[in-house]
Input
Amino acid sequence: MSDLLRLKTWLLVVALAALATPSRALDPPPGNSVANALEQAARAAELATMLRVPLGLPSSLGARLDPCTAVSESPTCEKLDLEPCRSALIDLVTDLREARDRGPEMEAAAAGQVLTQTVDAVLRLGAAGDAIEAGRCPRVTPAGSYPAQVLLHDRQQTVIVKPLAPLRAGRTYALVASGLDPAEVERLGETVEPHFGPRGLVAACDSDRLHSPAGRVACAEERDSFAKVARETFAGNVGGVDAAAVSALLIDLERKAAAMPGLGSYVGLQLSLDRRLRTEELTDLRFAFVPIGETLPGSRITSFRTLDARASLRDYRRRLRSLPCDMDASTEEDRREVLGASATAVDTVVSGEIPSLAIHSATDPMGTPAQAAQPSEVPYLLALPTGFSDATTMVIALNGHHGTARRLFSQHAQALAERGLAMLAIDLPEQGRRGGPDRDLLHVLRPDVLAGHLRQAAVDVLAVVRAAEQCGVPLPGGGRYRPRNVELFAYSLGAIVGAIARSVEPGIGSTVLLAPGGDLVGWLVLRLAPSLGAAPVSCVGGPQSGESCFGTGRCAPPGVCIVDPHFERLYQLVDPLYEQVSAPGDSLSYATERTGDAGKSPLLLLTAGDDSALHPALATHLADAYGMWPTAPGRRRGPHSTLVQWPSLGHDLVDHPDVREQVYAFLASNGRRLPTAEAAVVDDDTEPSDLSRWYEIFAPYRR
Output
């Protein structure tokens, strides 16, 4: 990449962060819910209505789609009648296919984008209708089974089927289909391409990771199947997308994914049809992911095992606990220099290093094997409150991307000390005292590097817990602090690390994950797309058709500013492989498992409805993985867990005093107390600035 292109990419990323003012949103519905299906239907209907004139759709379209708006506003699941909306969307599929086939390039691409969303909505509504008829409101599939998102590519003959909620790790699942001829289902089983295949199906023909219904091992000659679709989709750099760069990225990801011992919990499978789906088939077609051993609601296309990313973390934990407790003496820091003169509740600030393991590997996102990992040291800062003793709870604190332990200290150590809590903060890899001017844990085109750093950070947290429990933290002048209770407070990227560590460490007590998320590519897509030439929003129709509407969110009539269809195509193509390679560092690979040695102490997720970095849907994915279910707008509960969303706050919600009070009270009470502060209110009548209007368009369509 040239220096000029790097500069342009960086400036766009900075602008995206600076201008992002998302539309205010409550917690999106759980993936396995009727409400989720209704939201997708309403979204498809809304987008089609917006584009009616540019795409040349019938003038009666708005009235025809009214049932989709009405059904999405119904308060009672059991009394829903989904058929009028579903029939209207099936008719819309025909209109969109015609618009795609006759329109200019940009309009055709937009019609294809809406078509993909509409077909997905039709299939989801069908599954939701089955659930209502079976008396299973509000869940679409039975416990343990997962409904599917269906994404179409290249004239609807390449289909990606993705679970709508993270699958449980280390389990075997079947992808099942109903509504297709059995012979076609069997043929599909022979063309399935899991996203861990090296340019194709599986690493080798003797692999036991993927089997067709007849029990044959599915294998094929090596071929860069995903890159091939990308080259065809973006031939001639259509939409400004750099086809060669996308192809090179996908080939690299396919190669790395080949070594992965299982499919990521949120990845899915690619199917190759020899024809496009007929409109009439949409009425009865269903896809679902079902655990092996359960009754299959249809014919099995294929089966696969999900990635068990916890097993090697448990190995690291055992190795850590076998290390000697040789720790250098700590150093007392100038309390006023670190925290300021007002930090009177803090008695002592000390710094030192805790023994850990260097597990990051340049070639394997799962990391170096535990027995081969070399000892390393993790620097820390520890604030001890006045009158501390071993009975004083210690809170491990983790900051976000570009954050530092010292900055986190300045924000929270005094408040925690006022409540009788000690605070120990460490820097994430490549940050703070572990970083440098040209170092970063985030390499947007190298998700394996990011995954490795996140796993390294999780191992470092395990090392801190081990030091506290087994060794004690050295104090200046001798003696050790051995806290009887260790809690965790983590923000943003640190919250992803916290979810990973908590999955294998029962020694972590009450936990607050602030601005958390799952699905790393969903977080990084705004950084990834500019490096590949895609614009986030563009005009469709009118004299500016095909031009970016980034900044203003406006287009000359009759044009409409929407999520750029080429950006959406790019996201859908890159997402599966990116998800697979980043899975070892994605919290969705861990949060589904709360068995054995996983932490089971009270858990609090605090999220923001205006979060442009880790947008609301990413927190929803994580809440789904934890088995949390809505109890009120912006509230969820699950096994030993609670989610609270502040709808009007952004990614910096950690700075709001009421949010901080929730954090501190929850930790100080060992998860028993959660103040019910009123959410911050903003003036919803305020007209958004031209510079933020684009995100009002973009945000609702981030899944």
Q: What stands out?
A: The radius of gyration is 25 Å.
